[in-house]
Design a protein that fits this description.
27% strand; TIM Barrel; 645 residues; Oligo-1,6-glucosidase, domain 2; 8-stranded parallel beta sheet; 22% helix; single chain; Immunoglobulin-like; 15 helices
Length: 645
């Protein structure tokens, strides 16, 4: 037990909780438990890189307090405490894991606590924060053409003869680069035809991997930003998709790849496939200033050194005009055709100023549009190229891809972290992110950049133990698959009831397996879906869509011990409890303090119990959780108060 105590996640010690708006007063307290008197108590603070030492005042017994004012500009504040006693200096700061909450007493300078300071005008459109997303890799989703043929195939490409084939790359032996791109024939007409399926599933917004003209199947090597790839359709096809989706209450978000183009593009034209003079062909090209040549023309900066993806100079005025400022800029053009927002590829490789300007243009075009960024770490304190990034400080992104959330769930469900550490990691995100962003984070379990979630939860052979040919053939055993599905059902329940925007990667709901690219990008298994799993997705998405508490309610810990984790969601008259047992073998008898959240009837959702609704009159009651079981309890009363997320 430390004789100094500060808990950044307890409002007694830090108020208000978590991220704060600019100019907000923040009260910080340190409790001294030692019987011996101390000489003085100090707070060391960094605001915008400037250090400040504040002597704290005793306000009640051995409780010391200081009041800080957050800067007028967004950024990060950092702090720790030091106490002088009998001439010795003792430090108290963040814990070694830097997870916030209770800290650690040390005799040397400790890790600092973080306070995120954001623009107080930061608001995310409610339609987004209250919806469910669905990500589609278009070539692998569905061919909607009547003849089911692959139209406008690429020169030298490989077309799979069977829809249910496993993707495979034809590689160049010396460089391991892609020699032939493979295609299955999915297109935008297929997405249009499957809109009723997505509507029935409960989806509110579709995120499309890149759909602009390019030679590859992934299309992150853009050839023409103003043209739909002819294998997918025409510009008019995209416009129709947006209109048909809107009729069903759905929106469409596009993938914006603005840090690099393709070498085989209108703009670079290394392969000479376009009539315009590209930057590779002549310094007189109107696009020459867009690219970074070190020795013209063959030595140029490229994304991760991949020569087919030359990096662009984002702050070049003519490039910014083309992407965002011109009347028919890339951003404006596609939003006029119906796009409701953009997901920014590799956001950490785009300048902050570029992202801010792009956001401003988007909001001018459509105030309700949404900007999402690909960020793999905690986006509040992300550092790239030596700079603290301002992604979620209220002036750039509305949302980020929540890979940390995915990692936390996987580590818990696979037994790598217990429930208490899991909660501490979730609380760290909650503490660091501004509330508008936390409630709008793109909470994903799968994506085109990670192995299929079912393969991981089924504990197949580790990917790095297999070569590409072995990965292509590998499938979970029946026992592994059953375990993976049971765990995935828990993960989906968690995902659909947690703050943020759940995102379903196409085919995860159908039970698709696969290691990383290309095996995580297989064709959707139409007519071969895992029916039980698909039904579970539908039920849990419906549960989320029908609950204001799940969409925007407060989030609080209910239970965290060993294999069992549970939390409360509450909004208005509605309180919902979610509790999960990850253990695949053992049941757990646990005590839940539901009575603290409401007395009277608690209805069990998702699971039919013979006793019917629970009558809770005591503060706590025992429950049994079977192996790999999740339970959800709903309580409604006349008035809970105005508790909102």
């Amino acid at each position: 037990m430390s004789w100094l105590v500060h808990d950044s996640q307890d409002s007694f010690y830090r108020n208000p909780f978590g991220a704060v708006a600019c100019n907000t007063e923040v009260i910080l307290r340190l409790k001294v438990l030692a019987e011996e008197a101390v000489d003085s108590v100090h707070l060391r603070v960094w605001k915008k890189g400037k250090e400040q030492n504040v002597e704290m005042a005793a306000v009640e017994g051995r409780i010391y307090e200081a009041v800080l004012t957050a800067p007028s500009d967004p950024g990060l504040m950092w702090y720790y405490f030091f106490v002088i006693r009998e001439g010795n200096v003792y430090y108290y700061g963040n814990n070694p894991q830097r997870l916030g909450g209770l800290g650690l007493l040390q005799e040397q300078v400790p890790p600092s606590y973080q306070v995120t300071v954001y623009n107080g005008n930061f608001v995310v459109p409610p339609w987004f924060s209250e919806t469910v997303m669905y990500q589609i890799f278009v070539d692998r989703f569905y061919n909607g053409l009547e003849d089911e043929k692959v139209h406008n195939p690429k020169k030298g490409s490989l077309i799979h003869g069977q829809w249910h084939d496993t993707p495979v790359y034809i590689r160049e032996p010396q460089t391991n680069g892609i020699l032939r791109w493979n295609f299955f024939g999915g297109n935008l007409w297929g997405v249009i035809k499957k809109l009723p399926y997505l509507k029935e599933l409960g989806i509110g917004v579709i995120y499309l991997n890149p759909i602009f003209e390019s030679p590859s199947n992934h299309k992150y090597d853009t050839g023409d930003y103003l043209k739909i790839d002819p294998m997918y359709g025409r510009n008019e096809t995209f416009e129709r998709l947006c209109k048909e989706a809107a009729k069903l209450g759905m929106r469409v978000i596009l993938d914006g790849v603005f840090s690099h183009t393709g070498s085989d593009s209108v703009y670079f034209n290394k392969e000479g496939n376009y009539s315009e003079v590209g930057a590779y062909q002549s310094p007189e090209s109107p696009y020459y200033k867009w690219f970074r040549f070190s020795h013209y023309p063959d030595a140029y900066e490229a994304w991760w050194g991949i020569g087919t993806m030359p990096n662009v100079e984002e702050m070049e005025p003519s490039y910014r005009n083309f992407i965002m400022y011109d009347e028919n800029s890339v951003v404006r053009y596609w939003m006029k055709l119906g796009a409701a927002g953009w997901r920014l590829d590799v956001a950490d490789e785009l300048p902050d100023e570029f992202i801010r300007e792009l956001r401003q243009v988007m909001k001018e075009q459509d105030h309700h549009s949404v900007l999402i960024g690909e960020v793999w770490e905690d986006a509040s304190n992300k550092v790239s190229y030596g700079q603290n990034r301002a992604f979620v400080w209220g002036e750039e992104l509305d949302s980020v891809m929540n890979y940390p959330f995915r990692k936390i769930l996987l580590e818990f469900l696979l037994g790598e972290n217990d429930a208490l550490l899991t909660h501490r990691k979730l609380m760290n995100l909650y503490e660091n992110y501004p509330a508008p962003c936390f409630y709008a984070c793109m909470n994903l379990l799968g994506s085109h950049d990670v192995p299929r979630i079912l393969t991981l939860l089924g504990e197949g052979v580790p990917q790095d133990a297999l070569n590409e040919a072995e990965q292509e053939k590998m499938r979970l055993s029946q026992e592994q698959r059953e375990l993976g599905i049971a765990r995935l059902k828990l993960a989906v329940l968690w995902q659909m009831t947690f703050p943020g925007v759940p995102c379903v990667y196409y085919g995860d709901e159908a039970g698709m397996e696969g290691y990383a690219d290309p095996f995580n990008r297989g064709p959707y298994p139409w007519a071969r879906e895992e029916v039980e799993l698909l039904s579970w997705y539908g039920r849990t998405i419906m549960l989320r869509n029908s609950s204001e508490a799940f969409k925007k309610g407060i989030w609080r810990l209910l239970y965290a011990d060993g294999d069992v984790y549970g939390f409360i969601r509450r909004y208005g008259k509605e309180t919902v409890a979610v509790v999960i047992n990850r253990n695949a073998v053992s049941a757990h008898v646990i005590t839940l303090k539901l009575g603290l959240w409401g007395k009277g009837l608690w209805q069990e959702l998702l699971t039919e119990r013979p006793k019917g609704p629970l009558q809770i009159q005591e503060e706590a009651e025992e429950f049994v959780l079977s192996p790999l079981e999740g339970r959800v309890f709903l309580h409604q009363e006349e008035q809970v108060g105005d508790e909102k997320g």
